[in-house]
Structure formats: structure tokens, C-alpha cells
Amino acid sequence: AKAVARKYAENGFDLYLAARNVSELDAFVADLKVRSDRTVTQLELDVLDYASHEPFYNNLDEKPIGVITAVGYLGEQDKSQVDFGESQKIIDTNFTGVVSILNIVANAFEERKTGGFIVGISSVAGDRGRKSNYQYGAAKAALSAYLSGLRNRLYDGGVHVLTVKPGFVATQMTAGMDLPAKLTAQPEEVAHDIYNAQQKLKNILYTKWMWRWIMQIIKAIPEWQFKKMSI
Question: Could you tell me which residues come within 8 angstroms of residue 91 by beta carbon, excluding any fewer than 6 positions away?
């Protein structure tokens, strides 16, 4: 999210940056303002506090021309199998909360009839359920389907919807994992890809690019064989 914010600021966009613990962005925002000379406004937003979403959007002094959701909670697969509270946190963070805020955004964009863009960061994990993270993958699969429907609904109104499907990215979420270097993107790479794809009105972005072909292969494995594999 920070890398994407930098990319848009560098390209002349003023920004609203919303976060659950917005004070944690103080140093980042101060640096971003100096480097970009753009207006950057910090806002408190809890994606799981659904009742706050409509007032949050309505109270924005100037409504955005585009919205990017970078929301994710990997969770613990083993814990989620025995603790529904963990399952619910994974589902609600990665899907329900994002739907809540994007429903409001989509309705507002549709009503004003001046176009705009929505970028939703999903995951390659949603392309096929795997035993190692299928709770997270299921939530991201639901998000990808939601964004597909939103793209179809908003097209006639000139609102562009981009679904982003990252593979491995070197972020706090993956810290400590033993990830293959050649398949792992740096945040700046992902931000570059997102900005270019949004500007070119792409529908679906895999980043790094090779994940499109990796997931095509994984999805092509017959179910009778796939269920025996540990991937």
C-alpha cells in the first residue's frame, strides 16, 4: 500500500490514506509530502467496522476519482480449522469489509456519472484452493468474483475496475517465510505494475507477470491428481 501511494503521488495524484492505526503512517506521510509535494491526508478507517464506512465516505471533503483497496490478513490456516473466530477474521478482513466499503464507493461513482477507477488487491491464492491456505484463498476467490461482477456492472458508467492478483511479495505479511527469490516481487515492482495496469484500463493483473502462467498450470491439474499433492 505504501509503495502504491508513492507511485500515485509521484505521478501527480493527491491522496487520502486510510488505515486502522493511522498514526503509524505519520513518518511515511511526512516523507511522502516532502518528496512529492502533493496533498496527503491521513484518515482513520477500520475495515471491520462496517457501520462506520458510509459516514467515512460521506464526510470526505472532496470525493476521490479512484479508490485502491490494499487489505489483507493471511491468518493461521491450522487455527482457522478449529477456531471459527479465526476463519471469520480471515473472511471478514479479506472479503466482507472490502465489499462493505466498495459497495459505497461503487454506488457513489455510479451516481455521479463522471467515471473513476477502483483497484482491488486480491491474490493468486484465490485461483485454486490449496490445503496450506484455503481459508485465505477462499476469501480472496470471493473478492475476485465480486470485483469481476463490479467491473461488469460499472463498465457502462465509465468506471474502470482492476483486479490485482499478486503472488509472493516481500511485505510484513510474508516476513519470515522462505520464499523463492525469482517468484517474489518487491513492493515497488507491484506498485509499478498496478499503476501501469490501471492507467491502461487492464481488467486483471498478475504480478509478477509469470504468476498468470503458474496459476494456469495449477488450475489445469485434474482434481483427482491435485488432491494428492502438497503445494
Answer: 135, 138, 139, 142
- Taking a C-beta distance cutoff of 8 angstroms, is the pair 143, 90 a contact? no
Are the beta carbons of 110 and 157 closer than 8 angstroms?
yes
Q: Hey, which residues does 160 pair with through a beta bridge?
A: 117
Give the three cell numbers for residue 173: 505479511
Lookup result for grid cell 477507477? 117
The set of cell numbers assigned to 83 is 477456531
Amino acid at the residue 128: R
Alpha carbon 102 to chain centroid, angstroms: 11
d(CA 176, CA 170): 10
Q: Do 40 and 47 touch, CB atoms closer than 8 A? A: no
Indicate if the alpha-carbon torsion angle 25, 71, 41, 44 is positive or negative. Answer: negative
What's the predicted TM-score (pTM) here? 0.94
Helix/strand/coil percent split, the chain, to 5: 55, 15, 30
Which residue from 54, 44, 40, 49 is spatially nearest to 10, judged by alpha carbons?
40
In tens, the pLDDT along 153-191 reads: 999 999 999 999 999 998 877 777 777 888 999 999 999
